[in-house]
Write a structure and sequence with these properties.
- The protein is an alpha+beta fold and 181 residues long.
- It contains 5 helices and 9 strands.
- The strands form 2 sheets. Strands 3, 4, 5, 6, 7, 8 and 9 form a 7-stranded mixed beta sheet that branches. The protein has a two-stranded antiparallel ribbon with strand order 1-2.
- Strand 7 and strand 8 form a beta hairpin.
- The model has no long low-confidence stretch (mean pLDDT 91).
Length: 181
């Protein structure tokens, strides 16, 4: 049986750890439920892939249930039930962009959106020389490298950008984290 692009992009049967406001596991919950109920706190990962002063951005697939056709960080995704965030980050990177790099943990932040609440575990990795992402079209429509000046042009032009990705990109360019660029 063939699954739909929406099911492949959104994995409606995925089970996540349900956590309290201190990030302690208190149960499990279906991913689909977390996307519409901000009381169901869960874990996600966000990955900044950089080369020099540029960041890799992805255009989320139109089939995504959250922020479809929106520009986001290189990679983002959910942490599965029982999975540690670092392992989820490596898995998502391979699934969405087809490559693997050493990742550095930058921070954990509680993100409150109108329809969901999650702890974002933020990682960064330096792009290998000559890396060519191999995107999963169910997840990612396109990728693009962008420096700080290009990001300013995107904002001025009204490009659809993830608010959390904007915060993290701006922190990267402000050199808030001690990562090698």
């Amino acid at each position: 049986m063939n699954s739909s692009a929406s099911d492949r992009a959104n994995n409606p049967t995925e089970i996540l750890d349900l956590v309290d406001e201190r990030d302690r596991v208190i149960g499990t919950v279906g991913k689909r439920e977390t996307e519409t109920d901000p009381r169901l706190v869960h874990r996600e990962i966000a990955i900044l892939i950089h080369r020099g002063g540029e960041l890799l951005w992805q255009l989320r697939s139109a089939a995504k249930s959250v922020m479809p056709s929106t520009w986001d960080l290189a990679c983002a995704g959910h942490v599965g039930a029982g999975e540690v965030p670092a392992a989820a980050a490596q898995r998502e990177l391979r699934e969405e962009l087809g490559f693997d790099v050493a990742l550095v943990a930058l921070e954990r932040r509680l993100v409150r959106q109108p329809s969901e609440t999650y702890f974002a575990y933020v990682f960064a990795g330096a792009a290998p020389e000559g890396v060519e992402p191999v995107i999963d079209p169910d997840e990612v429509a396109a990728v693009e490298w962008c420096d700080e000046a290009g990001y300013g042009r995107w904002r001025a032009a009204g490009r659809a950008l993830s608010p959390v990705a904007c915060e993290l990109a701006e922190a990267f360019w402000a050199e808030r984290w001690p990562i090698r660029r």
